[in-house]
Amino acid sequence: MELALTHEGVLNSLLSEPKTKPELVAECDVSRTTIDRWVNQLQATMLMHRPGKRFELTLFGQIYVLKFNRIRQQLSHLVKLREPLQQLSDEIDIDPEVLEGANISFYEGLAPELAEKLLTRPGRVRLIAPRITCVFSVLFFQTPDPDLEFEILIAEEVASQLDTYLTNQQLSLLSIASVRIYEMYDSSPFCLALVERDERQVVYFIFEGSQTGVGVIESGAKEALAWGEELYDEYRDRATEHEWHSPSQPFGALPNREQCIILVELMAGNVQHETDVMRRVTSDEADNSCRSESLCALDKADYIEWNRETGAISTGPNFDDIRPILELMMNNPEKFPSDW
User: Fold this and answer.
1) Which top CATH class is 2-77?
2) From residue 237, how far is each of 101, 155, 156, 160, 240 by CA, in Å?
3) Torsion angle defined by CA atoms of residues 122, 184, 86 and 137, in that order, rounded to the nearest 10 degrees
4) Fewer Cβ neighbours under 10 Å: the N or C end of the chain?
5) 313 close to 321: Cβ distance less than 8 angstroms
6) DSSP codes, 276-318
7) Domain 81-241 belongs to what architecture?
8) Which residues lie in coiled coils (predicted)?
9) What's the CATH fold of domain 257-335?
């Protein structure tokens, strides 16, 4: 490992393609004497050789460098998860050997790749998702596999927000796959997914990292699966299936597209007066009438405070309730229907 750290530049340069000595000097930005010393050391350990005019990695050297790069990347991802891992260890008893051989990934933003990994193939997926961002990034996924069996445990307050803001038509997942949603009354400090498909089981531990993004620890080891099953069952036993408002309309009404645009602009500081809303289209009285109706609806729902006398608009007492969804819309527009 020490050899790879010392000669990382040369090794990765040769991993891409064979090089001459002058090319190594130029690419690594070191003296020819230094390259001579490094080449001798690497040849002595059979990491590289020179079968012709160029130096190249041996088969052993290629495998060694690929392994080294993977370990280095895994450690980099692990460092980003040090805070949530500490929080996890404070909340539950965890044996580090259970996760020692796991694969660690880190995604920027809300990790659409993770939703694709969980939902685009047939099988059974059980998910603990205490945070609203994780819940919505999954539930807004547009193309789940129709043969998917999906069970999700969400926090009580998140279920309430689903009732308040979402419509059945927006959730392809509900109409395509088999979905059961349960409410947790004691939220977990982590997101956990148990995936069964192709006669294989995998457990995912999903965390918000110390930097913006989502960290994922993935393992198919027997010990990790048993530990994940035990954790899931513990929360599932204390959860209750969510009761929707009605069988045909499980969710209440999300503010429509026009209203959400107003709220997003308000959150961004671009709306402070009713004229900021009306001037978006000044030539069409019907559009302005629609915007006036939108302001009335938002004011009635306490998402905004609209002073009819002065025209001033500000956030209302319920604005923070919808803020996470507005942020989701801003950061992940591709998760919403194109005509919405």
Assistant:
1) mainly alpha
2) 29, 14, 15, 20, 8
3) 50
4) N
5) no
6) HHHTTS-S-HHHHHHHHHHHHHHHHTTSEEE-TTT-BEEE-TT
7) 2-Layer Sandwich (3.30)
8) none
9) Arc Repressor Mutant, subunit A (1.10.10)
Query: Of 247, 250, 269, whose CA–CA distance to 165 is shortest?
Result: 250
- pLDDT truncated to tens, each residue of the chain (340 aa)? 677 777 888 888 888 899 998 888 888 888 889 888 888 888 888 998 988 889 999 999 898 888 888 777 767 666 665 666 666 656 666 667 666 677 777 766 555 567 788 888 899 999 998 766 667 677 777 788 888 898 989 887 777 666 655 544 455 666 677 888 888 887 776 788 999 998 889 988 877 654 556 777 888 888 888 888 988 998 999 898 876 554 343 444 456 677 888 888 898 888 898 888 876 544 444 455 556 788 888 888 888 999 988 989 999 988 887 787 777 777 766 555 454 4
* Sequence-ordered strand ranges (E) for 214-275: 214-219, 240-241
Residues 6+ apart with CB under 8 A from 241: 180, 181, 182, 183
Q: How many whole angstroms from its chain centre is CA 34?
A: 44
Write down the domain spans for the chain.
2-77, 81-241, 257-335
The reply to whether the predicted model has a pTM over 0.85 is no
Residues 6+ apart with CB under 8 A from 41: 3, 7
